[in-house]
Design a protein that fits this description.
The structure is a single chain. This protein is mainly alpha-helical and 221 residues long. It is built from eleven helices and two strands, in the order H-H-H-H-E-E-H-H-H-H-H-H-H. Strand 1 and strand 2 form a beta hairpin. The termini are far apart.
Length: 221
């Protein structure tokens, strides 16, 4: 837990950070039980620290307490998904339409996320693919140069990852997005912000429709 001290985080904040990263990384899936004793061992923390971390994640909408069952990774509803995409349109579209030139560091971050997604695609590691695709969109929000928005969007990304984890066929669900991420990055590199914004709007509309279809299919089964 030395990282907690280096970053000025409490131990509970650090455990929450690690749990959140494991959700984004696809290690903790929607509906998975979060057993205190397992977390104490897995994250090398006390029970009180783990409980506080789970409370923090509950406030962020990433975990849910079920009476007589304990804490689980949250299952998202149709209303949750619609709300997530409303947030994504607000932040990602605004970031693109702000029209600021793409700095080398920002472009490199996007390119690295796309390259990592390509490698994951080649390995057919669709869990990793979804994570890297979401990292690309974090870099898009990063164009706003707002640490507060960056922190807030990390939570949105974690919730989106829970949507992906409900897909019975992640290959079919994920594979089509790589080329569209690459296209948006290319438009940003060329300074075509209006076109990039339109491409992002189309991307998010299609992504929302697919996510809602996924939830409807999961509910039927």
């Amino acid at each position: 837990m030395s990282i907690a001290k280096e970053n000025g985080l409490s131990l509970a904040d650090q455990v929450a950070h690690e749990l959140r990263d494991d959700i984004i990384g696809g290690k903790l899936l929607s509906g998975m039980p979060l057993v205190e004793s397992d977390l104490v061992r897995g994250y090398n923390a006390s029970r009180n620290t783990v409980r506080e971390a789970l409370h923090l994640l509950g406030r962020e909408g990433l975990t849910t307490y079920i009476r007589h069952k304990g804490v689980i990774v949250r299952r998202l509803t149709v209303a949750d998904v619609r709300d997530l995409f409303m947030v994504r349109r607000t932040l990602e579209s605004r970031a693109i339409l702000a029209g600021k030139p793409l700095a080398n560091q920002q472009s490199s971050g996007m390119a690295d996320a796309i390259e990592a997604a390509e490698l994951a695609c080649e390995r057919e590691d669709w869990r990793a693919f979804g994570t890297h695709s979401l990292r690309f969109h974090q870099h898009v929000v990063g164009l706003l140069h707002s640490p507060s928005f960056d922190a807030f969007f990390t939570n949105i990304v974690a919730q989106m990852r829970l949507v992906f984890s409900a897909a019975p066929d992640e290959a079919r669900y994920q594979a089509s997005w790589l080329e569209r991420d690459r296209h948006i990055h290319h438009l940003l590199l060329e300074g075509h912000c209006q076109q990039a914004g339109e491409a992002m709007d189309s991307y998010l509309n299609d992504s929302e429709r697919q996510a809602l279809e996924l939830l409807a299919s999961a509910a039927r089964h």
